[in-house]
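so my prof wants the structure for this chain in the tokens format not the other one, which i didnt know existed until like an hour ago. anyway here's the sequence
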Amino acid sequence: MLSLLFNIKGNAGSLGKGAAAAKHMATKDESGAANDEASPAHVARVNISGLFPAFPTTFMHFPSPCHVRALRPADLDAVLAVQAACYPPAMQEAAGVLRARIVAAGGTCAVAEDEHGLCGYLFAYPSRLGAVTPLGAAFDPAPDADTLYVHDLAVAPRAHGRGLARRLVAQLLEQPAGWRWSALVSVQDSEAFWRALGYATDTVHDAAARAALASYPPGARYMRRALAGTY
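here's what i got, hopefully its the right format
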């Protein structure tokens, strides 16, 4: 789920749960390009080692004073703090669930850090096209995955305006893992943000997927995009 307001979940700072959460609402900057962090607030189990080969020893530097690296178990408390700043209580997921996700899919999860500490995170995992992870549920990586499912993307209010949400997504999708698709659930008016990144709304036909989608607030949308080489 991706809440972009960042509130994929419904608060300042998130971009989505389920693939994105937060009320991180996309707007336009002076050039007409989508701005993924315009307002304060918080928009997807196969452990794939080596997906971010540079992360264990090297930070990636961006124009803003921020670094992106792999998510580690020791980051849990900081992740919970960002989640609390970005989502209303009803959309905050339990510490035990997040801990299990880090262990299960740490290779497809990342965080952003600045001089003050962790300021954003992204949870994703290998899945199948059309499958939806319910809010608060454990990741169940598919052994025959064809889709990178983006479950939760959140950026702390203090770090808005740096384009961190886009950077986290781009860093993940640029990894050569062989998936044909990426999918997510957009919530709280974050659909425009995801559309700007190439995602489009899609219909879920499976009964289990429909039930999972119903675990999100009204207006949640299942979205997907083809990855490089699959157009």
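also thought this was worth mentioning. The helical segments are 76-86, 95-105, 164-173, 191-196, 207-213.
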